[in-house]
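I am hoping you can look over what I have pasted underneath with an eye to the fold:
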Amino acid sequence: MGLNDTPSGERVHIGFFGRRNAGKSSVVNAVTGQELAVVSDTKGTTTDPVKKAMELLPIGPVMIIDTPGFDDVGALGEQRVKKTKQILNRTDVAVLVIDAVEGMQQCDRELQNIFEEKQIPYLLVYNKMDLLEQIPEEKQREIYVSALKKERIEELKERIAAIGKVSDGKLQLVGDLIHPSDLVLLVIPIDKAAPKGRLILPQQQVIRDVLEADGAAICVKEYELRELLDKLGTTPALVITDSQVFAKVSADVPEEIPLTSFSILMARYKGLLDTAVEGVTAIDSLKDGDRILIAEGCTHHRQCDDIGSVKIPRWLRNYTGKELEIETCSGQSFPEDLSPYTLVIHCGGCMLNEREVRYRMKCAKDQQVPITNYGIAIAFMQGILKRSVQMFPHLSVLFQDED
């Protein structure tokens, strides 16, 4: 991924929902100006969610998602409906497409109720207005369009943009923690598990954020860090490290220099930090036979010393001295039922949007299962959590007993 690409987790996710044959795919194609979805008179043509990252004016970078019909029937239909519900967990704006001739049905009302329950901004789009003799007066959240004749599609895009507008005050990854001209050191291991020829997404994003804040970013491998600190002639404002080398970096960086990790910054950015710091203490209470879920937001080829499936399980067993049952999940396979687990340890979530990370966090909270993330768990087990979150004063209350 190039530095100019907008990652999936940063795009406004716009989901198109509705009954079979209401014209969802036709509306998607009209809005995007592209043939993203198969269009047919046969009910249930869309069998799996169709996703497309694109620039959509006047919104900007978006992820368009066309979903299967929510009224699908049979065993296969149940699977399609389940996938539709999963899409809702990462939907920033929901567009409910309704057949204007048939009007709103029970299935449409069920979807509308889910939007409201999940607090998803939504729009009711009555398609096929060209078949109506008279257009009813539109209520709030309603718009009548014709995908076939491309009528009122531009107005629809404006309406979607209005409810999907991302706040200009969105939290920064690191920019609000530094000042112009500050020097930030980024410690980035280059090993066999690193993507060949590129940096991983959180590293790219932090570099960009430092530059946006008018700071300077210097990247260094963990074994060159100490020598670089000796040569710099100035004190860095902040050191950010890959979680895997937290212990070594903490030993090499003087105490007076703030230190944190990419994963911790990502937890704050996605809204997980406070919950993750509270949840990590559950590691000290683990017992033989406890089940731990290690969850990753993306899918990738696992290397022989993969952090999620190999390193963290090893560190957990060494730290606790317990016989633990450790399971992993990746991509969109995060289980709704977390009751079998004593603890969830999640990745940084760079490939997930904030809404999905918060959904996963809420699943854990509602089921009273502690949840934390990679960087916080590693810092905790290596005894450097307090140091790694000290630049967030509101968390200091959690460490008062240590003082």
